[in-house]
Amino acid sequence: MIDKRVKNAEEAIAGIQSGMTLMLGGFGLCGIPENCISALAESNVTDLTCISNNAGVDDFGLGLLLQKKQIRKMISSYVGENAEFERQMLSGELEVELTPQGTLAEKCRAAQAGIPAFYTPAGYGTEVAEGKEVKEFNGKPHILEHAFEADFSIVKAWKGDHAGNLIFKGSARNFNHPMAGAAKITIAEVEELVAPGELDPNQIHIPGIMVQRIFQGQQYEKRIEQRTVRKKEI
């Protein structure tokens, strides 16, 4: 068994350089790799292309990188909770590629599976389809989408072991799962890092062969974007 443990986030992100393309897991603020994002915010890397379901909020998640203008381009499906993102996009400081959420997930999964491209009906007839090849299947037009090409994929899991096997929890699985193994190097930060043999093989979501570096994260905030509760009955 190959031991893929690294000491911390700083060691995990070693090799990430300015101009690279990064995948960052999570669904909204759920299951984002908080430790690695904070380490990137403390680094000197700039001109990044970030592929993520969303762009965090102003003072958390990818919002930390946006504040320091470390991101050149965002590829996302939802960006509505970040005022700094909006400001940079409208001013032309930030390049933005909005992608239908299902297409975003499939472009990750295709990269993970080694599939170079696929056809989808999502986005046909909109700006999403501009400049893309179109074919008809069963009388319905589909556009050609290419799998992502990323240098690093950074994911966050509930549990993992020394070999890089991962188990996700709840909604955190949504984009972390298809991003693991979808880049040249995959970094996994986990809430609980256990010894080999302690994970139930039947419960593992991502096998260790897809992960190159793993470490146990610390002090997770696990913020909620919009907390909605029922009014107290009197």
UniProtKB/TrEMBL annotation:
<dbReference type="InterPro" id="IPR037171">
    <property type="entry name" value="NagB/RpiA_transferase-like"/>
</dbReference>
<dbReference type="InterPro" id="IPR004165">
    <property type="entry name" value="CoA_trans_fam_I"/>
</dbReference>
<keyword id="KW-0808">Transferase</keyword>
<dbReference type="InterPro" id="IPR012792">
    <property type="entry name" value="3-oxoacid_CoA-transf_A"/>
</dbReference>
<dbReference type="GO" id="GO:0008260">
    <property type="term" value="F:succinyl-CoA:3-oxo-acid CoA-transferase activity"/>
</dbReference>
<dbReference type="Pfam" id="PF01144">
    <property type="entry name" value="CoA_trans"/>
</dbReference>
<protein>
    <submittedName>
        <fullName>Succinyl-CoA:3-ketoacid-coenzyme A transferase subunit A</fullName>
        <ecNumber>2.8.3.5</ecNumber>
    </submittedName>
</protein>
